[in-house]
Write a structure and sequence with these properties.
The structure is a single chain. Helix content is 64%, strand content 0%. The chain is mainly alpha-helical. The longest helix is centred in the first third of the chain and has 21 residues.
Length: 250
């Protein structure tokens, strides 16, 4: 049985139909590449929706041409999909396909990590991708995946932890839950416990805190339940971003 997973990056989309297609919006540079591709990609990752995932893949390729300055961010999304396909191949017993997709994922994440610009979302996408799929990979890739998740979540925490309480619920929830989960899965028990307690304080009254309390009361849940993606980030949805832009224009 697959664990219940979540992902860090920006907005929760679970089997939700696309309210608006991004296809006719790709040239609108007011919309970030993340806003334009993540809902379709999440629909594929979370619900095995190949139609939506294919559109997300296609739009990533288009944006790589249209917005070369965002190459790192787009490569991270592309690598995340390769990691998803590696997980599917492993579960289907297709060892050659698994090896090919896994190698593609590692290469993509590595290239994205080396970039010094256009990389604002690389840490989030990379950490979230490995948190989502690491347990669906064989060893030693599983352990390596959680190590990658921890490395990227730790970097996010080091960058944003000092101001975490000032951030929107979804953002601070995803950063805190990500570092907590990754620390626990890499054997950093004391660190995980500190972040879990911090979640209960900083995120009191939110779905993140509710699950953190369950996890604290029953530590065994950590192996089967993911703390992330407990709060849908409605303002970040494509349709809401477009509506906001139209309202501003008027």
């Amino acid at each position: 049985m697959r664990p219940l997973f979540g992902v860090l990056v920006a907005v929760a989309v679970i089997a939700a139909p696309a309210a608006q297609s991004p296809d006719d919006l790709l040239s609108d540079t007011r919309l970030s590449v993340h806003t334009l591709v993540r809902e379709d990609i999440f629909a594929g990752w979370r619900s095995d929706n190949e139609t939506r995932l294919a559109r997300g893949d296609r739009n990533v390729e288009i944006l790589l041409t249209q917005r070369p300055a965002e190459r790192a961010n787009l490569l991270a999304w592309k690598a995340g999909t390769a990691l998803y396909r590696a997980a599917l191949a492993h579960e289907a017993g297709k060892s050659e396909a698994y090896a090919r997709h896994y190698a593609e994922a590692l290469a993509g994440f590595a290239e994205a990590a080396k970039a010094t610009s256009g990389n604002g979302g690389v840490r989030a996408v990379t950490g979230g991708s490995f948190a989502l799929f690491a347990d669906r990979l064989p060893e030693p890739a599983r352990s390596a995946g959680w190590a990658m998740a921890y490395e990227n979540y730790l970097a996010l925490w080091n960058e944003q932890g000092a101001d975490i309480e000032k951030m929107p619920v979804h953002h601070k929830g995803e950063v805190l839950s990500g570092i907590t989960q990754a620390a626990q899965r890499t054997g950093r028990t004391e660190e995980a416990a500190r972040h879990l307690d911090r979640m209960l304080t900083v995120l009191a009254g939110t779905p993140y805190a509710s699950l953190a309390q369950q996890w604290k009361a029953t530590p065994a849940l950590a192996a089967t339940t993911n703390l992330t993606c407990r709060n849908c980030h409605a303002p970040g949805r494509l349709e809401n971003k477009v509506a906001a832009l139209k309202k501003t224009a008027n």
